[in-house]
Write a structure and sequence with these properties.
One of its GO terms (cellular component) is plasma membrane. It is found in: Cytoplasm. Pfam families: Bac_DnaA, Bac_DnaA_C, DnaA_N. There is one protein chain. 53% of the residues lie in helices and 10% in strands. By secondary structure, it is of the alpha/beta class. It folds into four domains: 119 residues, 2-Layer Sandwich (GMP Synthetase, Chain A, domain 3), CATH 3.30.300.180; 171 residues, Rossmann fold; 71 residues, Helicase, Ruva Protein, domain 3 (Orthogonal Bundle), CATH 1.10.8; 91 residues, Orthogonal Bundle (Chromosomal Replication Initiator Protein Dnaa, Chain: A), CATH 1.10.1750.10. Strand 1 and strand 2 form a beta hairpin. The longest helix has 29 residues. The structure holds adenosine-5'-diphosphate and magnesium ion.
Length: 484
């Protein structure tokens, strides 16, 4: 990203820095895995590699654009928080597409994904080699269709409340009596992190435990990769037969099939064949069948034919119950006040709530200190901050433009006079500090400027803040206004 490694000593230094980063990185990976679970970790995060640190930003690599976008959306904040916890100077994570040295090929054709270009060339400096964290192969990457079910996701560990009781009841019913009329297909939908995957795994585990039926569970992307891999290896017949031989087929996050016409078509045929043969289908998505625009009409219609159950956003009561259940299971005593505080502060989804509690518990175990409101605020400061109001780049631009009395359009204009260039740089600096947007994204919002321009702006503002206390005060003031 930036230059500066001219001499040999610096190369040696860079290598030393890299091995230190690797140590931090393996710790972070272990934590991530504990937080998100093996299945999710292997699906999304395993192939991530660590890159260079530039000032307060660390670069991480993912092999495809698709994975990069997904990881950025789902785990971007968490990665930032984990890095910050390891190395406080790091405040941002930049995710880039680059292929690290040979991630263990796992035969599920994940490389064949959504037309991602054959990865950007990894940067040339030694410190920038992507490191791929090697993991032992686990069950879910086998090529057969045996369900990679997370043993933690059972009906017993699912906390029921108003927002999810209907979905829960339907899931239980399907687990007890698969393929009963009216419940086939079972379509579960709701926002991210509200328990769809949990319920599907619970259905699967229950059925597998009974040992009478064969269950195939996979995410829609996995379905797609498998299908693409089958086409490549000219084994589509085998793939179809395998799928059509199961008693229960569960496809998670069906919205991923939107725009993937061939895969959708294949799914549609599989779906029909199975339902016609009296087998059970369970599908989850982020929206109801009728709102999944982009799915073929005939598929949408069929998906809506059985039971459609939505999981609503959590209520305060449900969040408390979930926290209580998880705290009890952990064996660490967490005061009611702390649980209430968390349930108030973290409202987005159960995954985040769980992540926060896990961190508290890990912290308590590690240091052998009781959990209190103070330790909570301290240990979770980054999560709590991220759950405060999120500032957008547009807001920053508006406030900064107002402050220096320039036109909002000058934030993206090509004018270079200091009168407008300086406020623009401040706005870029604040965007970097207060949002989780990446440098290129910030650049784009400022009249399609290059990310190097943003880096330059950040540096310049930092220098000026050191040299000029009045300017520093201005910037600080703006920052506080935007943050509150
Ligand atoms: P989704 O698939 O809807 O995005 P998940 O099923 O992956 O969400 O849930 C995210 C996390 O939250 C999982 O660890 C899951 O166990 C937990 N979770 C969600 N809802 C509940 C619940 N009602 N009770 C207990 N844990 C839950
Ligand atoms: Mg899910």
């Amino acid at each position: 990203m930036t230059g500066g490694l001219e001499g040999y000593d610096e190369v040696a230094e860079a290598n030393a820095q890299k091995s230190i980063l690797d140590i931090h990185w393996s710790r972070i990976c272990a934590r991530l895995k504990a937080e998100v679970g093996e299945v999710e970790y292997n699906t999304w995060l395993r192939q991530m590699g660590v890159g260079p640190v530039d000032e307060d930003e660390i670069t991480l690599y993912l092999p495809t654009r698709f994975l990069r976008d997904w990881v950025r959306g789902q785990y971007g904040d968490r990665l930032g928080a984990l890095w910050h916890a390891e190395i406080p100077a790091i405040r941002r994570v930049e995710l880039q597409v680059a292929r690290g040295p040979s991630p263990a090929a796992d035969g599920d054709a994940s490389a064949a994904e959504s037309g991602a270009p054959s990865a950007a060339t990894p940067p040339a400096m030694p410190v920038m080699d992507a490191v791929v964290v090697e993991e032992p192969r686990t069950a879910e990457v086998r090529s057969d269709l045996a369900a990679p079910l997370d043993p933690r996701f059972t009906f017993d560990t699912f906390v029921v409340g108003k927002p999810n009781e209907f979905a829960y009841a339907c899931a239980r019913r399907v687990a007890e009596r698969p393929s009963s009329p009216g419940f086939n297909p079972l379509f579960l939908y709701g926002g991210v992190g509200l328990g769809k995957t949990h319920l599907m795994h619970a259905i699967g585990s229950e059925l597998v435990r009974e040992g009478r039926v064969s269950v195939a569970y996979m995410s829609a992307e996995k379905f797609m990769y498998r299908f693409i891999a089958a086409i490549r290896s000219q084994s589509t017949m085998e793939f179809k037969e395998q799928l059509r031989s199961v008693d229960v087929l569960m496809i998670d996050d069906l919205q991923f099939l939107i725009g993937k016409d061939n895969t959708q078509e294949e799914f549609f045929h599989t779906f029909n064949a199975l339902v016609d043969a009296g087998r059970q289908i369970v599908v989850s998505a982020d929206k109801s069948p009728s709102d999944l625009s982009g799915l073929e009409d005939r598929l949408r219609t069929r998906l809506g034919c059985g039971m459609v159950a939505d999981i609503h956003a959590t209520t305060f009561e449900l969040r408390i119950s979930i926290l209580e259940a998880k705290a009890t299971a952990s064996g660490v005593e967490v005061p009611a006040k702390v649980l209430e505080f968390l349930a108030h502060k973290i409202t987005s989804n159960v995954r985040e709530l769980e992540g926060a509690l896990n961190r508290l518990i890990a912290h308590a175990n590690l240091f052998g200190r009781p959990v209190t409101l103070e330790t909570t605020q301290d240990v979770l400061h980054d999560i709590l901050k991220a759950n405060n109001r999120r500032v957008t780049i547009e807001e920053i631009q508006r406030k900064v433009a107002e402050h220096w009395n320039i036109r909002l359009t000058d934030m993206s204009s090509a004018r270079r006079s200091t009168v407008v260039a300086r406020p623009r740089q401040v706005a870029m600096f604040l965007s970097k500090q207060l949002t989780s947007r990446s440098l290129p994204e910030i650049g784009r919002k400022f009249g399609n400027r290059d990310h190097t321009t943003v880096i330059y702006a950040v540096r310049r503002v930092m220098e000026l803040m050191e040299q000029d206390p009045a300017f520093a005060e201005d910037v600080e003031l703006l920052r506080r206004m935007l943050e509150s």
